[in-house]
TrEMBL record:
Gene3D superfamilies: 2,3-Dihydroxybiphenyl 1,2-Dioxygenase, domain 1 (3.10.180.10). Residues 2-133 form the VOC domain. This is VOC domain-containing protein. It comes from Didymodactylos carnosus. It holds the Pfam family Glyoxalase. It comes from the Eukaryota. InterPro entries: Glyas_Bleomycin-R_OHBP_Dase, Glyas_Fos-R_dOase_dom, VOC_core.
Amino acid sequence: MSIDHISISTPAAEYDKTLLFYENVLSTLGYKRLYTIDNKAAGFGHRYPAFWVGAANPSHNIILESRQHDRRSGNHIAFVAKSRTAVDEFYRVALINGAKDNGAPGFRPQYHRFYYGAFVIDADGNNIEAVNHFDWRTFIGWKSLATITTITALIVGVLITQQFT
């Protein structure tokens, strides 16, 4: 089962700051702002807006009102990263842009053997994660991959030569 989209809210006064944070941080994962609604909401994604940030009016949002003293929202959003390097870059850029550390990049074997993630808390208290479940380039390594490709090409070449001689 896949998640289609996720939305979070931020106080209207912090909306622009929150958008800038997500534009900078999510760009490390290839996400772009794809859609904006009247400067009240913005959708980010690759091909479609899968992650939304909305400006909330606290008088209409009981959850947001209760968060005024406690900045941790309890929301958790995990974004797919194409590589472990992208996870590392996500974490680095998030901290530069004001996020707080909630788990440095690294393996999380309690989830599964190849789970590599990083966690940060954004300005609104959301627990944001970038995760790579398996980076085959790191597992195999470029030298090993090049060696396997070369050997395969040589074997195929020999077989073709034998076929036509």
